[in-house]
């Protein structure tokens, strides 16, 4: 029978919280022309949802935590894509300096990694709460190397292993860097669509935007 409480300690959630705060900082660093609406709008929306998500987790209201977490990831994705569109439109108009374009492209690239790491962490195998209710991680939408050990040949340090946010951050970083997953095969269709979307955004930022900015220096 699955345990009623998560196996992982509460501090296992903090890397995801730090990633969300980092996205907020990166968004605040963008020039005004690439920000959707007033800057306070993003801070207020994300801040309220983040507080709601953390409080729901602390009170063990996992249904509220799940809904608010998905909504938060969706808001972050929307603002990121919208700013990316504004950056693409700013290229031919020359409204920003080449250095500003490079900094903005770098900020959006890092934001892309963090946002999709949050999506993978939130969605894989039912989300963090569902993963924590079971011992180990025998199945999921991503095939981590630790899942390939034979049951009778699992190294002691990997017994009961389950992925946390850092594992999904590593997956997202590789997807944005190599434009495809590297050592973590993608199994489910929704995960394949998400990795395709992430790789496409990364390709747009790195190849089109950053390269163009360098060319006009």
Describe the protein.
With 217 residues, the chain is mainly α. The protein has helices spanning 14-28, 39-58, 62-93, 98-123, 128-132, 165-178, 189-215. Residues 1-8 have low confidence and may be disordered. It is globular. It has one domain. The chain is built from 7 helices and no strands. Helices cover 64% and strands 0% of the residues. Helix 3 (62-93) packs parallel to helix 7 and helix 4 crosses helix 6 (165-178).
Secondary structure blueprint with pairings:
Layout: H1 14-28, H2 39-58, H3 62-93, H4 98-123, H5 128-132, H6 165-178, H7 189-215
Uncertain ranges:
1-8
Strand content: under 5%
Number of strands: 0
Helix content range: 55-70%
Inertia-based shape: globular
- The helix-strand sequence is HHHHHHH
Task: Quickly count the domains.
Answer: 1
Structural class based on helices, strands and sheet pairing: mainly alpha
CA distance, first residue to last residue: 62 Å
Number of helices: 7
- Let me know the average pLDDT: 84
The whole-angstrom Rg is 19 Å
Short description:
This protein has 217 residues and is mainly alpha-helical. The chain is built from 7 helices and no strands. The chain has one domain.
Label this structure with key terms.
217 residues, mainly alpha, 7 helices
